[in-house]
């Protein structure tokens, strides 16, 4: 049965009763292209969203990294020179919270000169490629909202000096949004309400965009994935990649020492004996405040969304299918009378895959400590905590000319 024939789907049926025949044909084509099996997850949501038993995971701390610096660097540089390292930039967001109706990466973070967020990230990557004397293939994940703008911005600025042939763009896949009864929302009379499939959907989106052949043709064995909003992060960091290789692990995660027990960051730990991430809201007060004998927090290292994964293992995960989480959200929609509704409270479900599951599906993970003053300057707001103001201050502290 086609979804528009299902009598429960009141929002879809309401618009189809008012649409022209041509509009309905276009809508049917869109509906046919969607994988509706995600709606089955509503009944399984408690099982999928349920967490196991958390336990602490020791990190490779900065003292050890300094002591083994030459060893880690040599391994990482060798992997880069042999073409075994690729990088994925997660850049699907708009800069709405920053007063920017464009891709977040187009934000000017300079003060006395023009310096774009994308530009700074490319500069960070080129610090490594200049040192290695070899380029790293860069894959940029956009969204259906900002894809064209992002590509045009890179073209306009000559890819900020990075060779164009080493850069590929792909669009993050979307999933339908629905109410609590599984009735799919419409965002307009001709478009289903859709949302990105979560921060764990990047590799599956790459595969479905046909980029697996490109990854294989380069001979990539390690993929460093990172988010657009952290302007200080090191990308394809030879020390980080080298440490992951040296420890013989399938993955690594950059972590920072938590500023306070209640800091709102996910914590790298184990879950049922395998590497995982406990979100800050999942931690009990006892977990958050527990300390080791030396006074350090037992769960003391927060993730910064900068990971390295074995490419071979990622392919296995993609084949096995990642868990789909059912998340309550506020979803704007068109009601049955044709009026647009902007809810003040959660009114339905979105379906997301999470990078924490990607970590959890790895056999092991190296928590790799970095200095937050030198590698963690996320820009989520204009002012206050994790803002453009705080990022600029940290960048100046690192000697970056603004």
TrEMBL record:
Identify one Pfam family in the record: UDPGP
Q: Which CDD domains match?
A: UDPGlcNAc_PPase
- Keywords, alphabetical: Nucleotidyltransferase, Transferase
Q: Name one GO molecular function term.
A: uridylyltransferase activity
Coiled coil ranges: none
Q: Which SUPFAM superfamilies match?
A: Nucleotide-diphospho-sugar transferases
- Keyword Glycoprotein annotated: no
Q: Which protein family is named in the record? A: Belongs to the UDPGP type 1 family.
Protein name (record)? UDPGP type 1 family protein
């Amino acid at each position: 049965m086609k979804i528009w024939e299902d009598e429960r789907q009141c929002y879809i049926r309401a618009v189809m009763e008012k649409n022209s025949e041509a509009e309905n044909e276009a809508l049917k084509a869109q509906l046919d292209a969607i994988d509706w099996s995600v709606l089955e997850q509503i009944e399984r949501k408690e099982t999928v969203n349920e967490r196991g038993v958390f336990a602490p995971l020791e990190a490779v701390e900065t003292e050890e990294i300094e002591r083994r610096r030459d060893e880690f660097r040599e391994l990482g540089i060798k992997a880069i020179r042999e073409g075994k390292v690729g990088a994925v930039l997660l850049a699907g967001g708009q800069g709405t919270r920053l007063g920017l109706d464009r891709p977040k990466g187009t934000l000017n973070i300079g003060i006395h000169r023009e310096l774009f967020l994308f530009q700074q990230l490319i500069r960070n990557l080129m610090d490594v490629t200049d040192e290695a004397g070899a380029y790293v293939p860069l894959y940029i994940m956009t969204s259906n909202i900002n894809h064209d703008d992002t590509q045009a911005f890179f073209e306009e600025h000559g890819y900020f000096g990075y060779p164009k042939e080493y850069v590929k763009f792909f669009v993050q896949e979307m999933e339908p949004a629905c109410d609590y009864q599984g009735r799919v929302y419409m965002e307009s009379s001709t478009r289903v309400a859709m949302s990105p499939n979560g921060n764990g959907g990047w590799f599956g989106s790459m595969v479905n965009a046909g980029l697996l052949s490109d990854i294989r043709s380069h001979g990539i064995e390690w993929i460093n994935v990172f988010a657009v909003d952290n302007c200080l992060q090191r990308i394809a960091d030879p020390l980080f990649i080298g440490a992951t290789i040296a420890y013989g692990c399938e993955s690594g995660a950059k972590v920072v020492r938590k500023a306070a027990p209640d800091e709102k960051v996910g914590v790298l730990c184990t879950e049922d004996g395998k590497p995982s991430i406990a979100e800050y809201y999942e931690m009990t007060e006892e977990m958050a405040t527990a300390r080791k004998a030396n006074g350090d927090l037992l769960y003391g290292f927060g993730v910064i969304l900068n990971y390295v994964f074995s490419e071979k293992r990622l392919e296995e995960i993609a084949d096995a299918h990642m868990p789909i989480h059912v998340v309550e959200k506020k979803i704007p929609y068109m009601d049955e009378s044709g009026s647009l509704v902007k809810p003040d409270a959660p009114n339905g479900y979105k379906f997301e895959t999470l990078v924490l599951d990607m970590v959890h599906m790895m056999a092991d993970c190296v928590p790799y400590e970095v200095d937050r003053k030198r590698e963690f300057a996320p820009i989520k707001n204009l002012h206050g905590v994790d803002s453009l103001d705080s990022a600029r201050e940290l960048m100046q502290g690192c000697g970056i000319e603004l």
